[in-house]
Design goal:
Layout (H helix, E strand, L loop, with lengths): L10 E3 L2 E5 L2 E7 L10 E12 L7 E6 L2 E9 L1 E6 L4 E5 L3 E5 L4 E6 L6 E11 L2 H4 L4 E5 L4 E4 L2 E7 L1 E2 L2 E2 L8 E8 L3 E6 L5 E8 L2 E3 L2 E3 L4 E4 L5 E6 L4 E7 L7 E3 L2 E3 L2 H13 L27
Antiparallel strand pairs: 1-22, 2-3, 3-4, 4-11, 5-10, 6-9, 6-11, 7-8, 7-10, 9-12, 13-14, 14-17, 15-16, 17-24, 18-23, 19-22, 19-24, 20-21, 20-23, 25-26
The structure holds manganese (II) ion.
C-alpha cells in the first residue's frame, strides 16, 4: 500500500506560512499531527528578508509564560529587549535564551546599525513544572561549542552533542543543533535512542536517511535510533532538535504555554490589564494585544 506509513520511515510534515511582526515565517511546529519534539513546542523559520537600520523583526512588546524562547540567527542581527531590563544585540551564530517562568515580556527590534539579510529560527521550549512557576531569566550565548560532522560545522545551542555542552540553562533531555555544510556532506549523526528528533532545513538541499527534505519541512524521527544519515548540498543550513518525549499534554495559546485554560485566562487578563505580572519593556514599538481566548465565547 503506497500510502501506508511505515514507522521506520522518516515522517515528513510540511510547514505552514504565517506573519510575525514584519516578517514572513514558515512554522514547522506546532502542527496538528505533531505538537512537540521533546520539549520543543514551537519553531518558526523567519525570513530571509532584507532589513535596515530602522526596520527589522519589528515585534513589539508581548508576554510569555511557561516557556523558553531560543532565538538563533543564520544571517544578520536583531535587538532583543525584555522586561528584565536586558538590551542585547544578537548576531548570526549567537543564541538568546529567555526563560519566561511565571511571566516575562520582550520585543525584537531593528538594531539601529545593521542593514542586510535577516534570517533565523525562533524556537520555544516548554518549561517543566518547577521552572514554569519560577522566575524569568535571560542569557546571551556568544561562545557556543562547535564540532565538525563530515563537511558540516555543528553548533550546539542547547544541550550536549559529542561531549560538548552549551551553557544554555534549560531542562535536561534536550538538544538543539545547527549544521552548516561548507562542502557537500554525507555524514552520520549520533542520536540518543531515548530522544525523538525533528530536522528542519533552512537553506539548501538535504536528505535524511535517504528521504529528501525540502526547506521549511519538518522531518520527524521517533525514539529508538542511535544514528541519522544526513546528506546535504554545500551551503546548507539545517536545524536538528531532539529530546525526551513529553509525558504530559501542554496547552498553547497565543504566547503562553500552560496546562489549563484557567492558567491561560489568568495570563491573558494580566497582560491586558497590565497589572505588573509581565513587567515593562522599554521599546519604541507598540505593545501587542490580542482578543480573548475562544473558549470565553463571543464578546457581548
Ligand atoms: Mn516572543
Amino acid at each position: 500500500m503506497a500510502d501506508e506509513f511505515n514507522p521506520d520511515d522518516l515522517e515528513v510534515l510540511p510547514s505552514h506560512r504565517a506573519t510575525v511582526g514584519a516578517l514572513q515565517v514558515r512554522r514547522a511546529l506546532p502542527q496538528r499531527r505533531r505538537r512537540t519534539v521533546g520539549a520543543w513546542c514551537f519553531a518558526d523559520h523567519m525570513g530571509p528578508a532584507d532589513v535596515t537600520e530602522g526596520s527589522g523583526l519589528d515585534i513589539g512588546p508581548h508576554p510569555h509564560t511557561g516557556l523558553q524562547t531560543v532565538t538563533w540567527l543564520v544571517d544578520g542581527q536583531a535587538l532583543h529587549r525584555d522586561s528584565l531590563g536586558s538590551e542585547q544585540v544578537i548576531a548570526a551564530g549567537d543564541a538568546n535564551v529567555m526563560s519566561a517562568g511565571l511571566g516575562v515580556a520582550h520585543a525584537e527590534e531593528a538594531t539601529g546599525h545593521y542593514r542586510g539579510t535577516l534570517q533565523g529560527i525562533q524556537l520555544w521550549i516548554a518549561q517543566d513544572d518547577d521552572a514554569r512557576h519560577g522566575p524569568a531569566a535571560f542569557q546571551h550565548l556568544d561562545d557556543l561549542p562547535r564540532v565538525e560532522v563530515g563537511a558540516a560545522t555543528a553548533t550546539i545551542f542547547v544541550g550536549e552533542y559529542q561531549g560538548q555542552r552549551s551553557r544554555a540553562r534549560c531542562r535536561a533531555g534536550l538538544v538543539g543543533l545547527e549544521l552548516r555544510s561548507h562542502g557537500a556532506t554525507d555524514a552520520t549523526l549520533a542520536l540518543d535512542p531515548g530522544f525523538e528528533y525533528g530536522v528542519i532545513v533552512l537553506e539548501g538541499e538535504a536528505q535524511v536517511d535517504g528521504t529528501p527534505l525540502t526547506a521549511g519541512a519538518l522531518g520527524y524521527r521517533r525514539p529508538g535510533r542511535d544514528e541519522l544519515g544526513l546528506r546535504a548540498s554545500a551551503g546548507s543550513t539545517i536545524i536538528v532538535l531532539g529530546g525526551v518525549p513529553l509525558d504530559h499534554e501542554i496547552l498553547m495559546w497565543w504566547n503562553f504555554v500552560a496546562r489549563t485554560r484557567e492558567e491561560i485566562d489568568a495570563a491573558y487578563d494580566s497582560w491586558m490589564a497590565d497589572d505588573g505580572r509581565f513587567g515593562t519593556v522599554t521599546s519604541p514599538l507598540e505593545r501587542i494585544a490580542t482578543t480573548a481566548p475562544y473558549w470565553r465565547g463571543p464578546r457581548p
